[in-house]
Amino acid sequence: MKIVRPSPSYLVTIPDEVLEDHGDRVASFWLDGEEILLQLSSYIRADGQQPSAATRLRERIAKHAENWTLWNKELYPAASVDQATAEFVDHDGVLWIHTYLVWPHLTIYALISGPDVQVRSPSNWAMASVKSIELAIH
């Protein structure tokens, strides 16, 4: 496993063999030959009220006319983090899981996509990576 810093704000642990690409605001991670993709982006709030995870997720859902399912369980293991997750399966059988993790100063948006069966697998490295996120600034 290796630790990657997609932004100065946080760290994520990913398998050694995972490939990565870092754009302006989005970090993408995948395994060669597999169809699961993890994308992470973050937003820092210097002042003012941070929108809630549920608000951010509702805004995301409003942009996509899909049959969304809201998660009742939390993806991220720290109960102190405001979080919201929803998913949909597109017409090609690709599962899209959208998660917002919100701290008072930082929002992380995580998107996991891939074939439904692979994304739901207990050995899904992308899901484990999201669960491993740690703040680098507090």
Give the SSE map:
Blueprint: E1 2-7, E2 10-14, E3 19-22, E4 26-30, E5 37-44, H1 53-63, E6 69-70, E7 82-89, E8 94-102, E9 106-115, H2 116-119, H3 125-131, E10 134-135
Give structural attributes.
alpha+beta, 138 residues, 10 strands, 3-stranded antiparallel beta sheet, 3 helices, single chain, 7-stranded antiparallel beta sheet
Quick rundown:
The protein contains three helices and ten strands. The chain is an alpha+beta fold and about 140 residues long.
Compute the gyration radius: what is it? Answer: 14 Å
The overall strand count is: 10
The spatial strand order of the largest sheet comes to 3-4-5-9-8-7-6
Element-level helix/strand string: EEEEEHEEEEHHE
Tally the helices: what do you get?
A: 3
Largest sheet: 7 strands, antiparallel
The N- and C-terminal alpha carbons lie at a distance of 24 Å
Structural class: alpha+beta
Strand content range:
35-45%
What is the helical fraction, as a range of percent?
10-25%
